[in-house]
Amino acid sequence: MAFFTSSIVKILALLLLFSGPHTPTSNARTPLRIQEKENQKVVILISSDGFRFGYQHKTSTPNIHRLIEEGTEARTGLIPIFPTITFPNHYSIVTGLYPPYHGIINNRFPDPITGETFTTSNVNPKWWLGEPIWQTVVDQGYNAAVIFWPGAEVTKGSWTCPKQFCPKYNKSITFEDRVDLALGYLDLPESERPVFIGIYFSDPDSQGHKVGPDHPSINEAVARIDSVIGRLIDGLEKRGIFDDINVIMLGDHGMVGTCDQRVIFLDDLSPWITIQSELVKSITPLLAITPPNNVSASEVVSKMNEGLSSNKVENGKYLKMYLKEDLPERLHYADSYRIPPIIGLLGEGFKVELERSKSKKECAGAHGYDNAFFSMRTIFMARGPSFAQGRKVESFKNVEIYNVLASVLGLKGAPNNGSISFANSILSPEAD
C-alpha cells in the first residue's frame, strides 16, 4: 500500500512540475473511463527522435539489446515515410496515414488557401487529420496517456489531452522524469490505468543535427537513451509486470552527415530561371516551391532541371525537380493541396541554399531526404506478451505501426494506409 501511495504522490508532483506556472489551478478532473476488459493488454510506445538504424551498435546499449534479444526486431530497421522529418513521421506512426492524408506535410508549412502557417506548436485540430491511436483508445472506452508525442495536445474525438494523462510539452522535463511519470500511471487502480502510454525523447536527434551521425557525442546521447530504457525496465520489474507489458521502441527517422562542399545554390540557376525567396516554402533537404504568377509549375520544373543538368551548376546533378504529381509513387507525397506544386529531391547528404555566402559552417547532420536512403532508416523493437522472443522481421514502413497497436490492444482501428493483415505477420502466433 505504501508503494502505491508513494507512486500516486509522485504522479501528482510530476504533473504539477509539467503544468508550469500558467496551468489553471482548478482541481476538477476529467472523468476517468472504466476499463471493461479483464487482462487488457498494455502498450508502452517509445520514440527516440533521430535514432538512426545502427546507433544501437555504436556503443554499449545493454537495455536496448535486452529488448531486441527478448523480443522482435526489424532486421534492417524501420522505414520512415517521406519526408523523413519529425512531425510528419511521428503522426504517421500513430495514425497509419501518409502525410497527404493526415495533413502534417512538414514541420512548418503554409496553407495556400488561408495563408496561415502551421508550426510545431500549433494544436488546432483543423491541421491534424486522421485518428491517432490515443483517440482510438479513448473512443473505445479505455484510458491513454501521452507524454510529449507530437500531436498529443490536439483535441480529437473523445481525446481532450486531459491534464492527468497528457502533460503540456516542456523540453526541460528530464527523460528520467518522463519515464517515472509513465511508471506512475501503471500504479493507478486497474479501472483508471492507461492501456496505451506514449513517450517521446528528443535525443539523439538534437546531437545529430549539430555534429552529424559519426561524432562521439552521438554515442553519449545513445547511451543516455539506453539508460532511460533501463530505468523503465527496472521500474516494470520492481512492479513485477515487465513480462505483462508490451514495450515498443522505435525512432522517426535516421540522420546523415552534411558538409559545406555538398551544396546546390539556387542563385546559380539564374541564367535559366530566378527563384525568388518568397516562393520557396521549404528549402532543405525538402525543397518545395510555388511557381510565380503567370508562370506554370511545369515551366519552372523544366527550366530548373535544364540548369541542374547543364554541368554548369555546382552539384546540380544531385538535385532533381518534379511536379508533385510526377514524384515517384512510392513517396506518397502528392494528394494534398497543402503540398506545394514543385518538389525537389536531393542527393543523400546534400543541401540547398538560396545564394552563396562567404560564411562557412562546420559539417553537421540532417534528415528529410528520400526514404529509400538507408541512412534515413530508424529502429523498431518490441518486447512483451504479443511479440515473439529473438525474432527478426523484414523492414517495413512506419504506417504499419497503427494497425499493430490496435491489434495488440484489441481495438477496431480507423481507416488508414497500412495493411490490415500486417499485424499478423509481426505479432507472435501465440499471442491471444
UniProtKB/TrEMBL annotation:
Keywords: Signal. One of its GO terms (cellular component) is vacuole. Residues 1-28 form the signal peptide. GO terms for molecular function: hydrolase activity. It comes from the Eukaryota. Pfam families: Phosphodiest. This is Ectonucleotide pyrophosphatase/phosphodiesterase family member 3.
